């Protein structure tokens, strides 16, 4: 590598950072001016708050660009050169010449796709390596072979940057792969936003990485639609969300809500564990029918009549009348709680009729009733407030809550039997539980299903309508603010460089209105997290094979546009309610309008370890082929039979020494977690992946990776779950460098290669 070439790159990279500094300073100065203003009307203050929030956001975005600002350079022809980086940068001039191209821009695509066979006009693709702001080196790929001698050096190093990144020690947090996205991954990342895209790929093929980069790409390409509606990213557990949490911010994106299925019912924190049997029943589509029946069962009709006491007088609503009321309310097709006013109207009318008859009836049968229409209206008004009437309504058509409905259903055998005649006795027994004790992730889709059928209480609805009206007024106001800002651009912003703080470019009226709310600092993601009925612009699901049919129903409701990216591996399914067929999942919702892509190269696990995992996969299903490892590392995985797990700490310490500054995970059967944690007091057991040594079971290790994995008692891992072999496959494929297996009994036959 010629040093003059390196100096030239350094000079250019330094000029990009200088431009970034300049933009940050200008944004800071503008923010300072906004913050220095005081007084004025409420509207002035709101406007200032919105500008200040936009200013802070802009500065945070510039800060996020600091690391690895630029990483690539494409040379087309003799002297057309484009630099590629995390975000675009433009010259501070009237021409606004592009200095740095955003990796997501269409023109940056050849950086990922061009090959010697199809160079797309690229002569040289350069990967620029930096530490902080210093260029430490570069690797060139000569795609137009005629150009070999013109670049000043001649190393063609297509995979070296990729391999360097794959071999690096893990930190416990996933990093972005924007510098080394591979062609098969790029095609998925930039796939059309419309429809359901399913990405099937073995362990380590980059499904998570690709899904997150796709989120960033979609937010860039469809910014307007997606930043208002937001993108939901669903992951398997909180540890996993912590692991992937930095990837999108490092790509400059903050409009995504990261959540587990257990987070998707606001107000409920799903902490309870579920038996595999209960999870399987709760996840099955049959539960939709069960819940619908459970709601219908609460719409009651007495056998003969219902007694209603009003101010010490007794009236009767007979069965035929109650049946009519129920039919009418059901025919409205309104959710249960919202149909209650229909019941209330009919009951009040009937009781008013009976009262009128009693007090206004004339002794002389042929004379008309003495009560006038006005008197009857008064009676009806009073009846609406009467506790006796409310009690009758509570019998016939009680106000329900999703939580109450499910607790009752789980607790009372007769309710369950009536609502779930299709379930077997064993399935019903799996559901049975006493109230209290919290909710599980498997309950969340059922609560959501119930909430859909029950609907909100009238009072809650009225409150929401009020808020919506206020919000609309705020949008109109915010639009006015934006119009004023745009109109007065030359006056107010004349000394501010164009892309820094023009609020009308950075935010739209909806977003600005959101900031004017009392909860004005809430982002779209935060607002979406609070609202069960929020409709997302796009949904990304990771480890999607684990989701139950009931969870898919919930997600489909949240994304009526059916714009989804679903990544997973049907060979890794561990959850009893999970899926082993993508067609089964999607056909009910989109028929055949879903698109399947495959990822085939394993970037995580070296070939030596993958050979062991491959044996497990072929036992699981001889038709499944393991993904091909992109590298070998010369380290053979080992198995050690011990008399007692007391020997585990010694073996872990030896591996720890080999792991350097990387991360080591001890993966154990769930039943042994406490024992293993006791043996390894320094290891983190709470999912703190930045700790040098962590102890986890397979469920929690899903989707994660570690430099070294020590797997304890593989036989128990297999025996512990109906999908035990899949769990073993997952455990074996978590390592990026080293794998050891510690066992007290005989090694399972499927691991014979380790003998
Ligand atoms: N193009 C790439 N460049 C650099 N690293 C990559 C690339 N693709 C994937 N990786 C790395 O490979 C590892 C595995 O990726 P990822 O976790 O996304 O795989 P996965 O398919 O989701 O695996 P699993 O199914 O086991 O959860 C990660 O460290 C990721 O950063």
From TrEMBL:
GO BP, sorted A to Z: recombinational repair
GO cellular component: cytosol
Transmembrane segments: none
Sequence ranges assigned to domain UvrD-like helicase ATP-binding in this UniProt record: 180-606
Coiled-coil region list: none
SUPFAM superfamilies: P-loop containing nucleoside triphosphate hydrolases
GO molecular function: 3'-5' DNA helicase activity; ATP binding; DNA binding; hydrolase activity
Source organism, top-level taxon: Bacteria
Pfam families: UvrD-helicase, UvrD_C_2
Keywords per UniProt: ATP-binding, Helicase, Hydrolase, Nucleotide-binding
Binding annotation for ATP: 201-208
Keyword Protein biosynthesis: no
Name this protein carries in UniProt: DNA helicase
Organism the protein comes from: Actinorhabdospora filicis
Lineage, uppermost ranks: Bacteria, Bacillati, Actinomycetota, Actinomycetes, Micromonosporales
